[in-house]
Amino acid sequence: MTYCVGIMLEEGLIFASDSRTHAGVDNFASFCKMNVFERAGDRVIVLLSSGNLAGTQAVISLLRQRASRGRECSLWGAESMFDAALLVSDAMREVDRRDGQHLTDSDAGFNASFIVGGQIAGELPRLFRIYAEGNFIEAGDQTPYLQTGETKYGKPIIDWVINGSTSISDAAKCVLVSFESTMRSNLSVGMPIDLICYARDSLDVRMRRRFKPGDAYFTELGRQWGEGTREVFRRLPDLEW
Amino acid sequence: MTYCVGIMLEEGLIFASDSRTHAGVDNFASFCKMNVFERAGDRVIVLLSSGNLAGTQAVISLLRQRASRGRECSLWGAESMFDAALLVSDAMREVDRRDGQHLTDSDAGFNASFIVGGQIAGELPRLFRIYAEGNFIEAGDQTPYLQTGETKYGKPIIDWVINGSTSISDAAKCVLVSFESTMRSNLSVGMPIDLICYARDSLDVRMRRRFKPGDAYFTELGRQWGEGTREVFRRLPDLEW
């Protein structure tokens, strides 16, 4: 499995992804699921991938190869984040056309999906989730975040804490706790965690961190969070019978 | 779906269940999923049911009918909670023998499962989870709680807060927040919530509450929890880049 989150705030965007891939519990590995297409002053496009690794890698390779050849039909040439999402969708369908039937014949099937977000000069930041079929949804005011993969464990903490006006700083801490909660319950999600906090209109990635196993900040965050929540419970009004 | 939780603490046991049943989103109803077999001074046995409603009701009806006829082969005669769990398992397999093939023929299948816990005089409190197949596991020191149904949303909060030595009072509040988190994310789990806190060696149910939609305590608990967690995040150390 996988866990990826994208959040759209008034201050900017947050992206986070885990790194675990596996085929059963006896065959797991670590791959970065975060890909960035960045040209300072012009655009920042972040892709978070989940699903079958062969599929997501093929899509990213196609997008990188086209980008390396220039602007035409590539993420460097996209005039809006909507166009960028269409290009990712097109690449997904191309991989599906090539591999889909072969996978279906083996009872598998193409199942890559992506969170795509960022900002292109002249536009506000935008955030999309592209389904395996290539259709997609865009985050809005009422639902400012999108998740893929093993989403349930880490959802309540985001619901409790984050809305559009949450600061990047608080939202980043919340996302890390959301990952801590998920990894504690599910072996298929694992470190390192990749985190990008993109400040609106910066058109530049200035805040990027990778949290490896044993990371001192991540460990301390989890400890203080656990202590803090237990303290909140002690202060909550007791039930009367 | 459903959400049920049983927790084994040094101070006693906690049981909680939601009340929503549904067949698709356009056909939902409310049924209590908590059943109690109680004889003060002798035994308290609590069953939380999840799965197909026809199946769980048939199991409970069988157990009630046998109990009404006396001690033999009934929950009134069980000499231990292990024997009580075996009786529930036997009833499940009996219903499966009657209905299973008919359900499988319609692409459904028997899928009732139960959390069974309580205390019988002469024994310590015990807590079991019985799978649809009728086999079961028992909670222990390292994993003092068992869930069924839509378990993922509400699991992290229990992991953060509860261990065997948590007080009944704090654990009850935590379980209610676990339900609040689940209902916020999943339409298939809904109020009323039934809650029993059983004090070890009391052999009597003295703390039982039903939380209906709009319950003042439940609403206030959720509000204060949300406020408390946001405050914890503000105090957590900020990330440095």
Automatic annotation (TrEMBL), chains A, B:
Gene3D superfamilies: Glutamine Phosphoribosylpyrophosphate, subunit 1, domain 1
InterPro entries with a match to the protein in the record: Ntn_hydrolases_N, UCP009120_prtse
Domain of life of the native organism: Bacteria
UniProt protein name: Peptidase
Organism of origin: Pseudothauera lacus
